[in-house]
Amino acid sequence: MRVTWTGGGDLSFRLDPEDEITGRASDEHPIRLAINSCSIGGVPDDAHPDLYAVAAWTIVAPWTRRRITFDRAVSAELARALHDGWGVEAGPLGAEPRRPGAGLAISYSGGADSVAAATIYPDAPFVHFRRVAHPRVPNRWPHYRSDVLAKLAASTGRELTTVTSDLEYTLAEPRPGYPEHHAVAAGALLLADRLDLGGLGFGYELGSRWLGGGRYLWRFTPDNPMWAPHGRWGRLFAAAGVHIVLPVGGVSEAVTMRLALGSDLRDQVRWCLRGTGGPCRTCAKCLYKELIQAAVERRPLDTPLTADRPAARKYLKKPPFGGQEMIQYGLARVPGIENTLFAPALDHFDVSEEATGWLEHCYPPALGEIPERWRAQAAAFVEADVGLMSDSEVRRVESWGI
Ligand SMILES: [Zn+2]
To answer: Considering the entire predicted model, what is its pTM?
Structure first.
């Protein structure tokens, strides 16, 4: 793989003979390459070479098999992290390592999880990734309203940098999206020198970090390659002086929902990518989040969806479901759930409150993963507003899926 950056944020890459246009993201999801160029707007043109290298790697990693040649020398430490993590040879070498900055920014999407992360660090600036069209790829996803999300981010009152990018269109399949989940941070990485960043906070919660949630594996994942500090991505980011920080990595989506709805950013929370004046209420994400919100607010489910709609059909099938722990949590707490489209799922779980109470507390090792200079603030927040898991609750996490 050969990568070239021009004009600050314009990336083009050429595959070597051994590279392939099909691959897998770090969560094992199969993906296919569409095009070998993209750009990132709103970033400076003089970032440290290791920052350019990591930003590029979030986009080209799935296609690269044996080596990567950058257009500027990187540090030996950065090359070692690529070699240890992926077995690729990286070069040319020659740069001094980047010294971590002093600050922490939040990679801010506007969803409940990232709002909760933001609430823990009320002074942290935001970096928001906004999707824009690619000049050479047709937009097959016109209903994705990144403009609405960017406007909401701008109305939070926080110090905000919005980066615009078409990098998601480098993916042909399964749909436009991040080649690696970390590509959402490509712009923040290129801004790290200007913003003096030593850490970047993400809204990944307990399910994503520890339970193998989402489209990943449904089991306890202490060595999660994407989000563990000792995982390959954690070490790569650290080598570039930008630590991955998961302020809400120890709490479930029930807690992030409660924190987000109780925060002063409540009016800006938006997890739906489709709605304009508000959430669309009919996509799969809206349905999932409505279940969690109804559980947190202890009220009946409020959805226009019926069981035969595509967004709801999966709950007629057997588990595992994405975000299964939260499905279970919702089933245990939403009044009248047996009269809703979730009724068939009731047969598969223990839906007592006792069996799901662990999802209201923080898994303590998650706080230990936060770099020391930002840990005390998160720990104090969790102690005051959430509470730590008991030993038996910790065992629920560590036996998940086993
Ligand atoms: Zn929606």
So the answer is: 0.96
